[in-house]
Amino acid sequence: MGSPCEIRIDRPASVDGARVERALDDAVAEIERLEARYSRYRESSFLSQINRIAAAGGALEVDLETASLLDYAATCHVQSEGLFDVTSGILRRAWRFAEGRLPEPGAIEALLPRVGFEKLRWQSPRLAFPVPGLELDFGGIVKEYAADRVAGALQAAGLRHALVNLGGDVRVAGPRADGGPWRIGIRHPRRPGSLVLDVPLYEGGLSTSGDYERCIEIDGVRYGHVLDPRTGWPVRFMASASVVAPLCVVAGSASTIAMLRGEGGAAWLEGLGLPCLWIDVEGRMGGSLVRSEANSD
């Protein structure tokens, strides 16, 4: 999925090693299945097929799994007041972070008319693109969804002490075999190799969104990969946001929405009621995870 993936299993002596190996093989196969279906980098993927239809302004009927992803994308779009938008991935064409430069003049403006979830028509199972040239990108959902799927499969196989880490999107399937928590480090967005917090997790998901994974810095200004779909430019207030939730896909979308909400992200997270940590570009931090850490000292 374009990032390091890790599956860790604490195996009690009562669990057969062969069962663990079979479950791991099935887990890897599930990750590969989802990548093959929803990768934007694979011409043969179902997502690429959808986008070829979208480019021509066509329509199609989708399967139940894709419908569930579209339903979730629609919910996130509403909850974020349009900021979480699976059509905004097209803006990456203007931002070439590997080249270390800002977009060419007019590049963003040329793409903005092709951004907007409200421009497509979704009524399960039919997906239509009245505006030709739209494009879907499930990058903000599928990796987290995959972590949840794999964790669920491991639990169904009787492996109830596991951790799934797909590029930093974490889902825990039960505590460690000794009953203790898994310890998940949250990295500091400005200090490479340093952790802000070490979060104990017995169950659920943790995801962090930040401006440091893919970014460029020009004249002292950092431009991260989390782009505001209204302007096409990177968000500038939050440096990172981390959320703990029952599902990794919820943690991932919530952390991304917090980044996109800028100055309003902290209050939005507080209102959400999920354990969280945020750090702004000035180094200020807050959230219930910080308060919990302070109270435990």
Characterization of the model:
With 297 residues, this protein is of the alpha+beta class. Among the domains are: 46-128, ApbE-like superfamily (T-fold, Orthogonal Bundle), CATH 1.10.3980; 181-296, T-fold (Roll), CATH 3.10.520.10. Helix content is 33%, strand content 23%. The protein has helices at 17-38, 46-55, 64-79, 107-111, 142-156, 248-260, 265-272, 288-296; strands at 5-9, 59-61, 121-123, 126-128, 162-166, 169-173, 182-187, 195-201, 204-210, 215-218, 221-224, 238-245, 276-280, 285-286. The strands form 4 sheets. A 7-stranded antiparallel beta sheet has the order 1-5-6-9-12-13-14. A hairpin with a 4-residue loop joins β13 (276-280) and β14 (285-286). α1 (17-38) runs antiparallel to α5 (142-156) and α5 runs antiparallel to α6 (248-260). The protein is globular, with a radius of gyration of 20 Å. The model has no long low-confidence stretch (mean pLDDT 94).
